[in-house]
Amino acid sequence: MSDAEKYDAILMNVASQHTGGIQELLDTLFGFFARKTDLYTSPNVTDKPEDLILKAFRKWEKVAVEKHKKDKAERDETDRIRRDKLRRKREEEDAAKNESSRIVEVTDEEAEKIKQESAQAK
Predict the structure, then answer these.
(1) b/e for 78-117, b at 16 or more Cβ within 10 A?
(2) What integer pLDDT is reported at residue 87 of this predicted model?
(3) Where are the domains of the chain?
(4) CA angle, corner 86, sides to 82 and 91, nearest 5?
(5) What pLDDT is stored for residue 57 in this prediction?
(6) Is there a contact between 72 and 64 (Cβ–Cβ < 8 Å)?
(7) Backbone CA torsion sign across 113, 118, 120, 121
(8) Which residues form the NudC N-terminal domain (predicted)?
(9) Backbone dihedral angles phi then psi of residue 38, each to the nearest 5 degrees
């Protein structure tokens, strides 16, 4: 399990308890930072708290957008393959239907042979 995924279960549990959605979850998170950390007031932090938050946001936004693009491309490719298979199947069925119902010129001997085969089949 990667470091990024280490806390997923805990955070998912916390997120699922917030019926107000992401806004309520963020409010809880930043309230926690205010009550239990020195994020907003630390003299040891060289960046402003807003910059730290935006830096983390942009990092994970990039990851999420790339994942979304990749997933969409995979879905599109799967759909394209499915549509191609369906199209080929229809074309084969149409070709088979056309093959069986086509008109072919035959000689008298061939016609007689076809009649005999047809009579024997019945």
Answers:
(1) eeeeeeeeeeeeeeeeeeeeeeeeeeeeeeeeeeeeeeee
(2) 96
(3) 1-37, 47-100
(4) 150
(5) 97
(6) no
(7) positive
(8) 6-44
(9) -110, 30
Three-state secondary-structure class, residue 87: helix
Q: 18-77 pLDDT, tens per residue?
A: 999 999 999 999 999 999 999 998 888 788 999 999 999 999 999 999 999 999 999 999
Give me the residue label for tokens 């056309």.
98
Q: Which residue has the higher pLDDT, 84 or 2?
A: 84
Q: Which residues contact 34 (CB under 8 A, 6 or more apart)?
A: 40
- Cα separations in angstroms, 49 against 2, 12, 30, 52, 54: 26, 24, 11, 5, 9
How far, in Å, CA of 67 to CA of 69, rounded? 5
